[in-house]
Every structure is written in structure tokens, then in C-alpha cells.
Design brief:
Helicase_ATP-bd, 3 domains, hydrolase, seven-stranded parallel sheet, DNA-binding, Rossmann fold, alpha/beta, globular
DNA sequence: AAAAAAG
């Protein structure tokens, strides 16, 4: 790590940075032993990387040079945020307000222009010029970014990963008490893969596809398989006026008075939206679309359900359609989202628009087969909608090269800026050309989001369509103080209501447990959490969207972005961790102008935390005592459940109807099918039993 | 402290 001083400048570090440098050195030595002479290569690469960053962030002022040096170790260290934090914490910089910094950044970018201008005479220094993607600029990027850099990354990471892997296995070998669910997950995953591939189901799908879809996109779809289901359901629930196909082509669509047309979006897009009954843009769309169309970096805040997907989707597609063609392995835009469900939703929402404007998109996320994603990339894809893990994976495989990304979008950015995610996001965004457009959307604009904003956004326009607190006018908030012994009963009463209910719990185990308890009391409920394999997740979510399962018991996987209409009540069985989480969870109801109720349960020992949380969230309510049967609960529409216990098998039968039944049936005709479990009953039962095992385990705990 | 994201 002392190699860092290689550029000849004297380096001043804070203590923390020295420490980190020391650690890195130790790591490097260890790597040395492992890898022999590769080290040199790696060192050279590091310099390279730094060089590039300097170009982006560089500014001639002494202060800024200091800052750069100050930050340098970050690039090599594990924690890339560390340098910046230190910097922010330094006494002598306390007066250096955020605004100042921002204007500095703008300045530095101007300088960036000048540098390029020096190299190339024909470029103006103003933003539009900088934003253009010209062929002759590219080679320089490629030089910087490719070849020698990537291997270095790969080595680093692989090393880390390998060691952690080793530990894992080691643990397993000597430890019989290994966490149950880890094992479960691995099993499930494996079996799901096998299922995916083995596939006697495939023929049925293919028929299905041939029926109602145009052949030109068949390629793109060939991987759908399991993911097919929720997609359709999305489409069915998403625009409430879900038009039937024939209706669409029937009458010409008038763009008269169409709010989207007024935003100067291409007619094809406006028309396509109108066909789904989307003619009036939401406030956040009105606010952000013009700026995004103009190519500016946008920082958008809006409650989930406020239409953020279109806010970035429309301008993104419009700008992409204006020119250029995706080259193999080089997407022109990336949309990063924190969860797979969200990725699928975004992909679905954009799909008709992407296609109608003549572009190609691809969903790239974990838990899905690689091959379709690889081949789509190879063919060339304009928009990549991705979760960070798989995208990085593909980058490392050399399948995705981000050096020609013109537009980068971060959805639910506050979540992405959290510990553990941030690093991945940085790794990805570091690969994206610095002069591209960046759009950042989130329900809240803090939680360390500024790190990302400062690092990657240039002179962003900020649009917020609400004040960031809970909206009291469309949402009723109840906070109930209950005794522990009533918790189960109150939960069931609130959940036992007509319409959809989302129940939030803190842990995965808790989700399984509560869902089980609800079913025991005769309330049809299913758990959704990250411990389920992808196909289970899809099935559960699909069944919930279908209305087959009215109660979804979820961890915070579902807190953000999951878009289901008509969720009347959000019930928080476990209080959220902080007021942001409260708002995110609450955002699952009262979507798109509808009414909704948020009920939060708190136990006596949680009373004070809970009240503080309510205040912070800006919900104007306070805790009230409640027991089963109280009026408060009646007021939410809940009632004491009377039904007979629902078994695990009943649930499974409901959420994963026999596969064979799907072949040849049309869109609208997808109720539960009579006639038993069919040929694949066995498969279902096998899935179910592994799930049930965990469930019982969880319930056992709850008896305590 | 938990959850999410790569197998």
C-alpha cells in the first residue's frame, strides 16, 4: 500500500486511513504469497484507476487537491466510504457546507471539460457538449476502464470470496449445529435450479408463448419460465383499467389533453401509455421528466407508488431512442434496483414502452439462469435492469461492459446507499462513464444517500413531490399498545378483513411463524422473505397479487417498491427499525391516491421507542391501548377469524397450482383449476414439505 | 440487529 505514494506527491492521511492502509498492506502481502508476481500488475492497475477518478473529481484548488489525496486510500480500501467520512469529520472543514461542496464539484466538472478540450479542440465546455456520446471519445474510456483494470478487481474479489467460502465450508464440516436456514436455502436453490432445467414443463410454456405473443421477442422471453407468472399478474393488476388486447387496437387514441404529450415525450410512448389508461402524469413525473429529458442529473424523491418508474423510464427511453445502437455486451443504460421483485416490476412496467420504441431491454438479477442473460447481452441490449449482485457477476465474467452506459438509474437509492449495498453500487457506477446522465430516485433522500450523490451526480436537480413524511390525508395511522399475550389474536383480527393486507415482521423466521399462526387461525396468509427461493418468492407474490392469498406476511424485502394495488391495510406486527422504514412500509398502502390504513403493534417495552418513531415519521397519532375485539380494530375492517385452520398443503396448493394446467389457457382465464394437483403434485408437495419444516420450527419458537 | 444482493 505504500505504493500509493507512487505519484510522487506527499500524502497526508488521517489515522483511520493509515490504519486502513496498513490493513491493506497486510492483505496485499498475503495475496502476494498466494499469487506470486501478479502483484505488479495489480499495483499498476490501481494507479490507473486512481488516475481516472482524479480526472473526474479533480479541481485545481489546493483544497480540492487536498481532498483528493485525502480520499485516495479509499479507492484501495475495502470501505470506500471511509475516506470521505473522515474528510467530513475533520475539524478544519466543519464550515465546509454541503452546498459549498456541491458548487466545488460543479467547478471541478467544468475543469474536466477544459481538460478534454485541451485534448480535443472541437469540444465546447458546456454541458450539452459534454453529454454527447461521440465515437472519438470512447477509446480513451476504454483504455482506462478495460483490460488491465478488470482482472485486478476480479482477483481482489475472488480472493475475498474464496476465503469466506472456505470458512463456510470449514464451519459446516466441523459444526453440526449450522444455522438451519442456510442449509435450507442452499437446498432450495439447488432444487429450484434443477427444476428449472429439467423441465417437462417447458413445452407448455412454449405453447403459451406462441399463442399470445409476437414472435420477434421470443428470444427475449425464452428464459421466462417461472418468472413468467408474476409478470403477467403484474400486468393484470398494474393498470387498473387493464385493457384486453382487442380493445387496444379498436379505437384510435386521442392525445388531446394528454398530460404526457404535454411533456414532449414521443408520440409512440404517449400513445402506448394511453392504451393502458395512463394519461395523467403524477406530480413527480411532471417535475422530473423535463429535466431528465434535457439530460440533466436528477435527484427525485417521491413516495412509492408516486410513479417513479415512469419518471425515469420515459425520459431514458426517449433519449436512448434518439440515436445509437447497443453493441454486444455494452448496454446503453442501466437501472439498478435493490431487490429482484422490484427489478421484475420495473422490467414489466417498461417492457411495452421499450419495445414500442424499438429498443431492447433485459432483466439481470440473481436466482435466474445465466444463459438467457448472457445471450441477451451478447446480442446487444439497450437497457439493463439489474440487481447489483448479478450485474457485478456478469461484469466479472466479461459479459457486461458498462463503458458505454449513457444513462444510469438508481431506484430506491436510499436503500442502495446502505451498508453492504453501497460498495456494490460504487463498484458498478465506477465503471460507468463519468459524463453520462444519472437519475437517482428514492422515497427518502438521506441515509447516506449523499455519499452517492456527491460521488456520482453532477449538478443534480432535486425534485421532491412531498415532504417526506407520512401523508395523513390518505392514510389512517393507528399505533396499538398491546399486551404480549394478545399479540397473536390482535394480529389475526386485523389481518382477517376483506381485501389485501400486508403484514410486516422483523425477521424471516418471524414471517414464517406469523404466517403459520394466521393460517392456524383460519386466515389465509403466506410468508414472503429472502430465505425463499426465487420461484417460491414469485409464486407467493403472484398469489397475493391474484388475490388468492389476501394476507402477505413479509420481511422488509417487501417494504420497498413492491407494487400491489388495493392493499387496504399495512399491519406492522414488529415495529419498524426507524421512521424511514415506517414510511416505506406504510407506502405499501394508500397507493396512487387511494385510502389506506397503517396499524402498528407495540409491546409495553417498545412504547417509548414507538412513540418517538411515530413523531419522527410525522404521523400525528400516539399509542393507544388495545385488546382483541376493540373498536379500533373493527374500524380497520378487521374481525375475529372464524375459519378452520389452513394447512401448509392448502396454501401450497393455492400458490402453486399444477403447472400443467397452464398450457393453452388464455390470459384472463386463470382461476384455480378444478381437478386436483395433476401430474406435478409430487413436486409441489416436495417443495411444501421443506417449507413446512421451517415453519414448524418457527412456530415452536413462538410458543415460548 | 436484520434484511437485501452472487452461486
Amino acid at each position: 500500500m505504500p505504493k500509493k505514494a507512487m505519484d510522487g506527491k506527499k500524502v497526508r492521511w488521517t489515522r483511520a486511513q493509515k490504519l486502513e492502509a496498513k490493513r491493506s498492506e497486510v492483505r496485499a502481502q498475503r495475496d502476494d504469497r498466494d499469487r506470486g508476481q501478479r502483484r505488479d500488475q495489480g499495483a499498476a492497475t490501481r494507479t490507473d484507476r486512481r488516475d481516472r477518478t482524479d480526472r473526474r473529481e479533480g479541481a485545481p484548488s489546493g483544497r480540492d487537491r487536498y481532498e483528493r489525496r485525502d480520499r485516495a486510500p479509499r479507492r484501495d480500501g475495502e470501505d470506500r466510504g471511509a475516506g470521505r467520512r473522515d474528510y467530513a469529520a475533520r475539524d478544519d472543514r466543519r464550515d465546509y457546507s454541503r452546498d459549498d461542496r456541491r458548487s466545488d464539484r460543479r467547478w471541478s466538472n467544468d475543469r474536466d471539460d477544459r481538460r478534454s478540450t485541451d485534448r480535443r479542440d472541437d469540444r465546447g465546455g458546456d454541458r450539452p457538449a459534454r453529454r454527447s456520446y461521440r465515437d472519438d471519445r470512447r477509446p480513451s474510456y476504454r483504455d482506462d476502464r478495460r483490460d488491465d483494470r478488470r482482472p485486478a478487481y476480479r482477483d481482489d474479489r475472488r480472493d475475498d470470496r474464496r476465503s469466506s467460502f472456505r470458512d463456510d465450508r470449514w464451519d459446516e464440516r466441523r459444526d453440526d449445529r449450522r444455522p438451519a436456514y442456510r442449509d435450507d436455502r442452499r437446498d432450495e436453490r439447488r432444487s429450484s435450479f434443477r427444476d428449472d432445467r429439467r423441465d417437462d414443463r417447458r413445452p407448455a410454456y412454449r405453447n403459451d408463448r406462441r399463442d399470445d405473443r409476437r414472435p420477434s421477442f421470443r428470444d427475449d422471453r425464452s428464459e421466462r419460465r417461472d418468472y413468467d407468472r408474476p409478470r403477467r399478474e403484474d400486468r393484470a393488476t398494474e393498470p387498473r383499467t387493464a385493457p384486453v388486447r382487442e380493445q387496444r387496437s379498436a379505437e384510435p387514441i386521442s392525445l388531446e389533453g394528454n398530460g404526457f404529450a404535454a411533456l414532449e415525450l414521443p408520440e409512440v410512448l404517449v400513445e402506448r401509455l394511453a392504451r393502458d389508461g395512463i394519461t395523467a402524469p403524477f406530480p413527480i413525473q411532471v417535475a422530473t421528466i423535463p429535466d431528465a429529458l434535457a439530460g440533466r442529473d436528477v435527484l427525485g424523491r417521491g413516495r412509492t407508488g408516486s410513479g417513479k418508474t415512469l419518471s425515469f423510464g420515459l425520459p431514458m427511453l426517449t433519449r436512448l431512442a434518439k440515436g445509437g445502437k447497443a453493441r454486444p455486451g455494452q448496454p446503453r443504460a442501466i437501472v439498478l434496483v435493490p431487490t429482484r421483485e422490484l427489478a421484475m416490476q420495473v422490467s414489466d412496467a417498461l417492457q411495452p414502452l421499450v419495445h414500442i420504441i424499438g429498443l431492447r431491454h433485459k432483466l439481470v438479477a440473481g436466482g435466474m439462469p445465466y444463459e438467457p442473460q448472457l445471450s441477451a447481452l451478447e446480442r446487444g441490449v439497450d437497457v439493463l435492469i439489474a440487481t447489483p449482485g448479478r450485474l457485478i457477476d456478469l461484469m466479472e465474467r466479461g459479459a457486461a461492459d458498462l463503458s458505454r452506459v449513457e444513462i444510469a438509474v438508481l431506484d430506491e437509492a436510499d436503500h442502495m446507499a446502505e451498508m453492504g449495498f453501497l460498495e456494490a453500487i460504487q463498484q458498478i457506477l465506477d465503471q460507468v462513464p463519468t459524463d453520462g446522465q444519472r437519475l437517482l430516485f428514492s422515497a427518502t433522500l438521506d441515509r447516506g444517500i449523499d455519499t452517492v450523490v456527491e460521488q456520482y451526480l453532477t449538478d443534480p436537480v432535486e425534485h421532491a413531490t412531498d415532504d417526506g413524511t407520512a401523508s395523513v390525508d390518505t392514510m389512517d395511522h393507528h399505533a396499538l399498545l398491546i399486551e404480549p399475550r394478545y399479540k397473536k389474536a390482535v394480529t389475526a383480527e386485523v389481518a382477517n378483513r376483506p381485501g389485501r393486507t400486508v403484514v410486516f415482521v422483523r425477521t424471516k423466521l418471524g414471517a414464517d411463524r406469523v404466517a403459520g399462526e394466521l393460517r392456524d387461525q383460519g386466515v389465509m396468509a403466506a410468508a414472503l422473505h429472502g430465505g425463499l427461493n426465487q420461484s417460491q418468492r414469485n409464486k407467493v407474490l403472484g398469489a397475493f397479487k391474484d388475490g388468492k392469498v389476501p394476507v402477505l406476511v413479509a420481511t422488509d424485502v417487501a417494504a420497498r417498491g413492491i407494487h400491489v394495488d388495493d392493499v387496504g391495510v399495512v399491519l406492522q406486527v414488529d415495529p419498524p427499525a426507524d421512521h424511514k422504514d415506517y414510511l416505506h412500509r406504510a407506502g405499501r398502502t394508500a397507493r396512487a391516491g387511494e385510502k389506506g390504513t397503517v396499524v402498528t403493534l407495540a409491546l409495553p417495552h417498545q412504547r417509548r421507542t414507538m412513540q418517538r418513531l411515530l413523531d419522527e415519521a410525522g404521523v400525528g397519532t400516539s399509542l393507544q391501548n388495545a385488546r382483541p375485539g376493540d373498536d379500533v380494530i373493527r374500524a380497520t375492517g378487521g374481525s375475529t377469524p372464524q375459519g378452520a385452520p389452513i394447512s401448509e398443503q392448502d396454501l401450497q396448493r393455492l400458490i402453486s397450482p399444477p403447472r400443467a394446467s397452464r398450457g393453452g389457457r388464455s390470459y384472463g382465464d386463470r382461476g384455480p383449476r378444478q381437478g386436483g394437483r395433476g401430474r406435478y403434485g409430487d413436486r409441489n408437495r416436495r417443495d411444501g414439505s421443506s417449507y413446512g419444516g421451517r415453519d414448524r420450527f418457527g412456530r415452536g419458537h413462538s410458543a415460548r
